[in-house]
Amino acid sequence: MAEFLYRMGRWCARRAKNVIAAWVAILAVAAGAFVLFGGTLTTTVSIPDTPTEAVTERLQDAIPAAAGGSGTIVLSTENGEAFTPEQQARISDLVTRASEVDDVETAIDPFATEAERAAQAQAIADGRIQIETGLAELAAAQDQLDLAREQAGDTPEIAAQQAQLDAARDELDLQADALSRGEAMLGLAEGITMVAEDGSAAVVSIAFTEPQMEVAPETKAAVTDLFDDNPIDGVDVDYGSDMLDSVPSVFGIGEVVGLVVAAVALIVMLGTLIGAALPLLTALVGVGVGAMTIMSLSGVIDMTSVTPVLGLMLGLAVGIDYSLFIVNRHRRQLKEGYDLDESIALATGTSGNAVVFAGATVLIALAALNVTGIPFLGLMGTAGALCVAVAVLVAVTFIPALLSLAGMKILRRSERAALEAEHPEPGTAVEGKPAVKAMRTPSALVRVLVGIGALLLAAIPAMDLRLNLPDGSSEAHDTTQYQAYATIAERFGEGQNGPLLVVATLPGSPDEAAAQAAQVGIALSLGTQQGVVAVAPIGISDDRTVAAFQVLPESGPTSEATETLVHTLRGLDIQGVESIGVAGNASGNIDISDKLADALPVYLGVVVGLSLLILILVFRSIFVPVVATLGFVLSYFAALGGVVAIYQWGWLADVFGVDSPGPILNFLPTLLVGILFGLAMDYMLFLGSGMREAYAHGASARLAVVHGLRAGRSVVTAAAIIMIAVFGGFVFSHSAMIRPIGFALAFGVLVDAFLVRMLIIPALMHLFGEKVWWLPKWLDRLLPDVDVEGAALERRHPHVEPKETVAAH
């Protein structure tokens, strides 16, 4: 591989303009594909084979009208007073027009609903009076009949009158039973209101024909446009998060700031604007190709809005870092007296080889997300892997071409002047290196204790990790989603932001009376559960075997209490009911979180096992892979702890713009494993390979640690700062889904690079001395020789080749 990359680097350098033109053409093709075939991204997440999905499918077959998705529109008066009759009429008109939008099953008029509820209550009250009056009249008639029986005996006429009275009494009893059922159902549904008690806010519920995860964004947009295009004087309109597919901007001000910080770090390290510009340029080209290729597939693949953003994050970060490794190696070789073309080829064959290997570890870890069995997560991993693969290709082809055009200007003026004055022999440093001394053992022990202690301290909050999908409460306070959520929570109760859909299956073939009785019994059972505010029947199937109810929980959709209630309702054993299922947005998010949590240990095991195998292969050691993998586990949980502390507990909320702390994005822990593992292995390879090389060249185990650390720490430090800057730019994204991902990656890189790779592991390697490089002889014979840093290539190309030899290649 190293020899192949050496020759490819030389080929690209000599045909620089052709290579650059080829990448420009590839970028143009990707852009064209995106314009022609790009589809719509979605913010909804679904996983097949969950209890919620099973209930939804059952409901689609039994009661199609109740199986569709829903959306919420919240209207409130600007002055806090009750809606005027004119405002109510305008709202009702818009609701009627909304119900006529394609793929909208119905739009519920809040004022008509409340009027109907009041009419039902009045009808029940009137019915109760009528029944009581009828019973009183029957009692009087019975008294008269009894008196007549005493006087005349039990004649046929009296018997007939008694039969009529009994029939009338039975009819009244039936009416009373029906009235009691209606009264009970109305009482259970009392908490489900559409208009606030003071009349200043109202909720319009939109029911769609398609299930929640399949409602087209165009359908939602048609409804919201209707309200936006027809404003009502004195009325504010806000939309729930279920009405908006708010796709986050792929590139915003935060990302620009991150790139600026990365550019500053490059300028400080490389000392030239040209040197700093090359990694940035290659990263932008790579991420442009990768991200637009991914988005061009969104027309044929259901893709969440986070997928291309993740590709952008990774493409920028690894694109800059991988190019930096090659540029840094090239600059060092030029200062040692290498010929320009030879230096480009050798840098591509050595550092480029390490880049390919490091990129392969990231790519494998991301692609392994498909083993979780969760489609949207596997797609995210595949998309990220594609962007990493493009970044590697750009680094080993585009960078050599750009380095050829840059020539000696990749060095500072002072470095070029010193080079011309000294004329060093190729392979010798211009400046002498200070003598290397091994670190002191007490110092190494302190480093280990401090580093591990800091990581464990940071990881403590991870023990309280709660997973869910963000809802309107986690959005920025100036967004319409948050305003809708807050208005509902304040005026109607937290639970109305996440009602549950409960579906009961009745055995056999019940008649209408039995079905109605069962419906009331089920509603009463549901209403007695702790945490349930209200229950309302939604419908019953034509064969009367499936009944659906809306259950309003006391707490919000992402609360622990609601999660407990969902599991409680699913476990209910109601007499005469075959099974109870729960669906709805809140239930779906809980199921997704549970399935992701179940998949995480399996995936973490796969990644840890992969880590051990790769590192044993690279370092030919048992100790190094074990401590490197354990270090990754520590940095992973420390990163999760930081996320929990800030985004769930609310620490430093003002600094990080966390308006409403809450549960952590449910797929973040799994995603973090794949990405952080790959990046951690990058740093381990670039530091550890230098240590291994020094040890192989005869340095003692402890001196080899210092040699490798000194050789790689400057470039790894710069690379880590760049990663942190790029990921950190996403911390201030406007999307509640993107912010914690950006922070987790930035903080994970921070602790892994500076605490694990450059503090703890070198100190541990010093403490264990020669044992660090022990490997069983039988295993040593089995393992292939993986020359990651291209040391063998350097031995084959130790100096500048004669011009005629160069021309012969």
Automatic annotation (TrEMBL):
Name the InterPro entries for this protein.
MMPL_dom, Mycobact_MmpL, SSD
Q: Which segments of the protein form a coiled coil according to its record?
A: 131-178
Q: Does the keyword Nucleus apply?
A: no
Keyword Membrane carried by entry: yes
SSD domain boundaries: 273-405
Report how it sits in the membrane: Multi-pass membrane protein
Q: Where are the transmembrane segments?
A: 20-41, 250-273, 280-301, 307-327, 354-377, 383-406, 444-463, 600-619, 626-647, 667-690, 711-732, 744-768
Compartmental location? Cell membrane
In terms of one coarse class, where is the protein primarily found? Answer: membrane
Pfam families reported for this sequence: MMPL
According to the lineage, what is the superkingdom?
Bacteria
Task: Keywords in alphabetical order, please.
Answer: Cell membrane, Coiled coil, Membrane, Transmembrane, Transmembrane helix
What SUPFAM superfamilies is this protein classified in?
Multidrug efflux transporter AcrB transmembrane domain
- Give the protein's recorded name: MMPL family transporter
